Amino acid sequence: MREKYQRPEVKDLGTKWKMMYWDYSSQPRRKRSKVWGKQSAPSKRDAQRLSDEFMEKVNARNNEPALYASDDETLASLIAKCREKTWPHLKNSTRQHYEFFMEKYLLPTWGTMKLRKMSIIELQDFFNSFHPRLSPKSIRLMHACLRVHLNQAKVWGMVEKNPAIGVKLPRRKQRKPTILLPLATIGRLIDRLPEPTNTIVTLIVFGSLRIGEVLALRWRHIEGDRITVEERLYEGEFDDVKTDAGERKVPFDKRGLMKGALVGRWNASKHRQRDDLVFGTRKGGPLGRRNLLRHIKAAAIQLGLSKAVDFRSFRTMHSSLMLREGARPEVVRDNMGHANIDVTQNVYGKSWWEERVDAVTRAVDAVTIAVQNAEKEPKQEQPASTTNEWVPLWVPQQEAKIADC
Asked: Hey, CA dihedral for 200, 201, 205, 209, is it positive or negative?
């Protein structure tokens, strides 16, 4: 098919510039217009330059009729194209995340809506309707899902602007405070857990593994002095680790606690091939994290602890323990698989109450000792001044004598 190329001339309408062009992406073709205010384009040359830049996208879109043949493109058709062309490059967890919000909330309302007719104010009303029924985090994740796909539509030339950009969303709620158990209580809680939850929590507290990384461990990942982390389990599917930094090696402790726990798991397991899961069901399949979490909460209740203890709490305990014992932040970051050291220190690095009491006590002791030492020192008599004239301390001694003369 012969390529369609247009370079319309702008016309002066007094307070604005206007140009007309043909849109061949719809069937039948439609004549459209575009205007610019004279504040953004004072001269005709400026207006023509803006027109040429705009028409580059129009001409590109007009010459791709096979992919985007109609101006009646809907959100449902966009998602169908994304499933085919872009979703295969995403992580399993991201695809599941998009699938949930699209099927549950977005497509039932917006699936038949033409992309070019979606407006910011209508989207604003849509997201407002979920507050406070859904949490601010859920609303923000749903909005992010829609925004990403409309950005892709913009890249493909299906829309000129993304209507999801500019929507005001509910403020984030403060996260629930992280549970940081006393050191002795950590040990008692681990001892109270049944197997394999006991070994799993041991690897999280002392080895810093995420729960998905623990559940995806295979026997080939266990070496003589370390654990290799290279995949994770998310919602029943095996996937790459969360970030590039998450692919790492975690060392065993020299006391043999972590290694001993894994040896016990090996002895109790019937599945010992290289690719068999370390923590699997009787048939060798992956365990469900929710069942493990029930064990943790039940043990916490038995010890009189908060039911808010979860897998993230144990990761926080690992980071805080390492920092408390003097490990450099870089060591903690590498052990936890963080890409940024700020996350390690600001999100996962917490302090125990007794640590803060000890720090305040040391500060009081330092000042008290300094005062006591100062009182023990003999006082030196100050020489009598020979002049009533005040001389600044920063004036050299020789110049001060000259000034006295």
From this structure: positive
